[in-house]
Amino acid sequence: MPKTKVNEYTAADIQVLEGLEAVRRRPSMYIGSTDSRGLHHLVYEIVDNSIDEAMAGFCNEVDIRIKTDGSVVVSDNGRGIPTDKHSRTGKSALETVMTYLHAGGKFDHQAYKVSGGLHGVGAAVVNALSSNMWVEVRRNGKIYRQEYSRGKAKGALKTVGNGAKTSGTTTGFVPDPEIFPEIDFDFHTLAQRFREMAFLTKGVWVHFTDERSGLEVSYYFEGGIKSFVKRLNRDRNALHDPFYMERIADGTIIEVALQYNDSFTESVFAFANCINTIDGGTHLTGFRSALTRVLNDYARKQKILKDSDSNLSGEDVREGLVAVISVKVPEPQFEGQTKTRLGNAELKGLVESALGEGLSRYLEEHPSDARRIIEKCLTSARARDAARKARDLVIKRGVLDDSILPGKLADCSERDPELRELFIVEGDSAGGSAKQGRDRRFQAILPLFGKILNVEKARPDKILTHEAIKAVITVLGAGFGEEFDPAKLRYNRVIIMTDADVDGAHIRTLHLTFFFRYMRELIELGHLYIAQPPLYLIQHGKDSRWIYTDKEKDSYLSRLKDGKFRVQRYKGLGEMNAEQLWDTTMDPARRTLLQVTADDAIAADSVFTQLMGEEVAPRKKFIQSHYDKATLDV
Ligand code: 0RA
Predict the structure, then answer these.
(1) Coil, strand or helix: which one is 370?
(2) Best CA proximity match to 259, nearest among 379, 362, 385
């Protein structure tokens, strides 16, 4: 990214001011929640500030450390937060930034304050929610330091060193246990986000060390999002080298990288100012329309598409596509409940024309890549046509007609979809117990036989001919793919219930893959759950007790004084009778359900390609190292 000209900053540029009491009173308003997610958010806020400095072209190294004393330390080699006096507060700019809300400042704009974050108030919010915090600034050959507690300065800004040769900012903080009920940073969660930040900010080194475990990673992507796309395609067969373009238009930076593979899934990720805009927006709309237009124009010009052929559709040109769109907008408007949709109207045209020109030129200059891409799109178009015909036929025969439900379904009597639950159960005997054990007023049972199809490896037109998948689609009654309509869902909760063994886990992953690829909204709207059957029954004297995890088993056994107990392992649902299944797994008053979320669609995408895709080697490795986590944590 080019260096952006930044006017000489003065403290007066910072507009003020509000104290931090509000943040401590209602932390969730500022960081979303005070659970694990909110806790990790604190780290992102501080790292975002350093990434902003990198995007402005003044910093190429960010170092993050989780210390054994519970603190997190973030260091960068940027210009250092200014320390001169602020006219309105009479305090240093640093103290103003750290102890007041809305102390963002005009420099935001000029310096492209672009990464995620709370518009420059991130550091103050973290300060308010930390029992201790300190900042060290290296600037003007000096080292300055100030310490804080729960948002208040503990003393004045001090000069603690002279002769600093480098510049930069180092920030340490300890999350306040009065605010966060549980303080436990997860290495993988943080590493994942840092990797994403590094992809989106090419040329910056991000080092991350967890001193508790000794785990350490460094990220650096010379190619930025081009490397990102290569990485997403790592376990797939790519059809060409990635296309990449960057353009600055009207103060907006637009970057697009894309690469087709031979699969049938679409993996397109759009970012605005480093925020993953999972609900899309104008940049994504511009991207899609340019892609469809350019590929059609090229195919016509090369006479690959004949005059009598119809155009490639948007879906045709996105099958097997991996793409990342990243825009950096001076004044982003984020819309929607979760603020994850970009609203700036001008972005549609900007991205459309930038990609239109960039991609047309690429196709002209790389004719053999272009041909492979167009061939892939044509194959998709033909398969889609065949699928449409198959579906019409199927609908004619009534198989996908909502009014004709599969005979295996044991439906419930409740009419209000809001109150209805559907258990998707593997196998015959388990299905039988579930049918007997359920509360038939609101619980329906759909037993499925044999494994459901691995949709990651199947052509979309094959998927519809698979009995189990047809049954699921028909029973849910809301269609699938682009036409999925959650308003038509016949059940509020869809619960996958499988055996507590490796086979059960595999079947569960097959289901999750299908829902993720063909009914993603079912997951996003929180309708999909995983039942948690017990692993053990422990009998101790007259007591018997169901145990759901190995950890729980160990702690329970260690509390039993005498040795007379019997541990029974329950692997299959079929090993329980109807009453036991109700008591342990189905009764809403006693059961635990795991809600499936797709917070991180990028992680989920690669989990599913690795677990279910064509390449066997990565799958083996992955299953060995991540099995439980990968299957539940998508
Ligand atoms: C505004 C102006 C200048 C530096 C920064 C912000 C800055 C903030 C942070 C937060 C973490 N690391 C940071 N690095 C830099 C300096 C402007 C100038 O020197 O002219």
Answers:
(1) helix
(2) 362
Amino acid at site 618 = P
Provide the token pair at 56: 């402005």
User: Is there an atom of ligand 1 within 6 Å of 107 CB?
Assistant: yes
CA 458 to CA 461: how far, in whole Å? Answer: 8
- Transcribe 111-122 into DSSP letters: TT--SSSSTT-H
Q: At which residue do the structure tokens 């541990």 appear?
A: 567
Contact assessment for residue 231 and residue 604, using Cβ atoms and an 8 Å cutoff: no
Rg for the chain, CA atoms, rounded: 28
> Which one is the CATH code of 21-219: 3.30.565.10, 3.30.200.20, 3.40.47.10, 2.40.30.40?
3.30.565.10
| Per-residue pLDDT at 396 | 53
**Atom 12 in ligand 1: residue holding the nearest Cα:** 50
* Rounded (5°) CA angle 147-148-151: 155
Count of H-run helices and E-run strands, the chain: 21, 24
Q: How far is the CA of 508 from the centre of ligand 1 (A)?
A: 49
If one counts every other C-beta atom within 10 angstroms of the C-beta of residue 92, the result is: 22
Length of the chain: 634
- Annotated domain spans of the chain: 21-219, 225-391, 399-534+576-626, 536-569
**CATH of segment(s) 225-391:** 3.30.230.10
Tens of pLDDT, residues 319-373 = 999 999 999 998 889 998 878 899 999 999 999 999 999 999 999 999 999 999 9
> What is the β-pairing status of strands 205-210 and 61-66?
parallel
Question: What are the tokens at 161?
Answer: 């060193």
Model pTM greater than 0.85?
no
- According to DSSP, the β-strands at 528-531 and 493-497 are parallel
For residues 413-439, give the mean pLDDT. 92
pLDDT tens digits, one per residue of 74-98:
999 999 999 998 877 889 999 999 9
580 CB within 6 A, ligand 1: no
- Closest C-alpha residue for ligand 1 atom 3: 81
- Atom 9 of ligand 1, nearest CA residue: 81
CB-based contacts of 592: which residues, under 8 Å, 6+ apart? Answer: 532, 548
CATH of domain 399-534+576-626: 3.40.50.670
Ligand 1 within 6 A of 76 CB? yes
Strand pairing class (252-260; 243-249): antiparallel
Pocket lining: 79 vs ligand 1, CB cutoff 6 Å: yes
Q: DSSP of 1-36, one letter per residue?
A: -PPPP-PPP-GGG----B-SHHHHH-HHHHHS-SSH
Q: How many Å lie between the centroid of ligand 1 and the Cα of residue 73?
A: 17
- Ramachandran region, residue 329 (left: φ > 0; alpha: ψ -120 to 50; beta: rest): beta
Tokens describing residue 47: 């790292």
* Secondary element (H or E) of residue 289: helix 282-301
Indicate if ligand 1 lies below 6 Å from the C-beta of 49: yes
Quick: pLDDT tens for 133-192. Answer: 999 999 999 999 999 999 999 999 999 999 889 999 999 999 999 999 999 999 999 998
Asked if residues 212 and 204 have their Cβ atoms less than 8 Å apart, the reply is: no
Pocket test for ligand 1, best of 44, 47, 52 (most atoms within 8 A of CB): 52
